[in-house]
């Protein structure tokens, strides 16, 4: 698809909105909720055309990597460690993925990585600044 943004880079957590309401909606366990709150997640994205490797590094050495191609089904992993299949689409310059119980979009806005997850009307937004 034309108009895909350049996502490649390293991004560090800057701020988020509606974290508690969102993780309650998706049923994250309380220990994981505490771990994720104000978590200085570093997101590393390598983009090669429509192919992406999307890694999130959590404090304490845990990482989650999802590799996918826009428009093709891929196996992904949720924040909670559940595996599922999803097809990432490109809509209006945003990457869109339907996770088992929420919809996740990622976009580059003002040089920042803005990720939005929506579950049952609750919208969680995480903004990360580019560091590399």
How are the secondary structure elements laid out?
Blueprint: E1 9-17, H1 19-26, H2 30-36, E2 42-48, E3 51-57, E4 63-69, E5 73-77, E6 83-87, E7 89-91, E8 94-98, E9 103-109, E10 112-119, E11 122-130
Structure, explained:
By secondary structure, the protein is mainly beta. The chain has one domain (9-130): Calycin beta-barrel core domain (Lipocalin), CATH 2.40.128. Helices cover 11% and strands 55% of the residues. It has two helices and eleven strands. It has helices at 19-26, 30-36, and strands at residues 9-17, 42-48, 51-57, 63-69, 73-77, 83-87, 89-91, 94-98, 103-109, 112-119, 122-130. It has a nine-stranded antiparallel beta sheet with strand order 4-3-2-1-11-10-9-8-7. The chain has a two-stranded antiparallel ribbon with strand order 5-6. β9 (103-109) and β10 (112-119) form a beta hairpin. The longest helix is centred in the first third of the chain and has 8 residues, at 19-26. It is globular and about 40 Å long.
Instruction: Compute the separation of the termini in Å.
Output: 26 Å
From the 3D structure, determine the CATH topology: Lipocalin
Strand content bin:
over 45%
Form type: globular
The structural class is mainly beta
Number of domains: 1
Number of strands: 11
Q: State the share of residues found in helices, binned by percent.
A: 10-25%
The largest β sheet comes out as: 9 strands, antiparallel
> What is the N-to-C succession of helices and strands?
EHHEEEEEEEEEE
Mean pLDDT: 88
Number of helices: 2
| Reported CATH architecture | Beta Barrel
Gyration radius (Cα, Å) is 14 Å
What CATH first level would be assigned? Mainly Beta
Strand order in space, largest sheet: 4-3-2-1-11-10-9-8-7
* Assembly status: single chain
Runs in which pLDDT lies below 50 for 5 or more consecutive residues are none
CATH superfamily: Calycin beta-barrel core domain
């Amino acid at each position: 698809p034309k108009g895909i943004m350049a996502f490649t880079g390293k991004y560090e957590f800057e701020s988020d909105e509606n974290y508690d309401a969102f993780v309650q909606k998706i049923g994250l366990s309380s220990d994981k909720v505490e771990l994720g709150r104000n978590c200085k997640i570093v997101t590393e994205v390598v983009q090669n055309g429509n192919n992406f490797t999307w890694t999130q590094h959590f404090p304490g050495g845990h990482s989650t990597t999802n590799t996918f191609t826009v428009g093709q089904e891929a196996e992904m992993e949720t924040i909670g460690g559940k595996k599922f299949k999803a097809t990432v689409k490109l809509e209006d310059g945003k990457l869109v993925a339907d996770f088992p119980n929420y919809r996740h979009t990622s976009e580059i806005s003002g040089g920042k990585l803005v990720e939005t997850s929506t579950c049952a009307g609750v919208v969680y937004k995480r903004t990360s600044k580019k560091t590399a």
